[in-house]
Write a structure and sequence with these properties.
The chain is an alpha+beta fold. Helices cover 20% and strands 34% of the residues.
Length: 163
Amino acid sequence: MKLNLSDEPLTVDLLTEALRRTGSAIVAVNGTSMHPTLQFGWRVYLRPAHGEELKVGDIAVFRGERYLTIHRLVWKDRTDGAVRLVFRGDYNRLRERVDASAVIARVVAVEVPGMKRGMERVIATILPKPTAQDGRIGPIGRAARATFAAAERFLSFFLPERR
């Protein structure tokens, strides 16, 4: 999901500086890759984050090739001392492997626009999706999640590198 910002590299620097100085930012999103979690026209509340501190299931903003992208972290790869992160949108299956230094923020809340001006409301604080260690699923569910996680890790090696 592309954030509703210009495609200029300066935009990334300005958002990064705003996050550093104020500790938060609010940005409108467009696109459908994070549907239904995030929809066109909604605004997300961001807090500064480093890629190394993200947990699987967190939604983060990272530098793309020409614009900022917001997707969910699905895997962390720690090989050769470097942390590589694999993101994907909730609605699509395209996965992106990025360097941990590309992450600039984490989504902490979502604001849904109201029908009338001034009727906006914060609908949710974003929490990670449940993990396989969640006690509410049975052994078959844990085995299925572990199988899919292993397949996702294996297939992430075939992702193109993004700088």
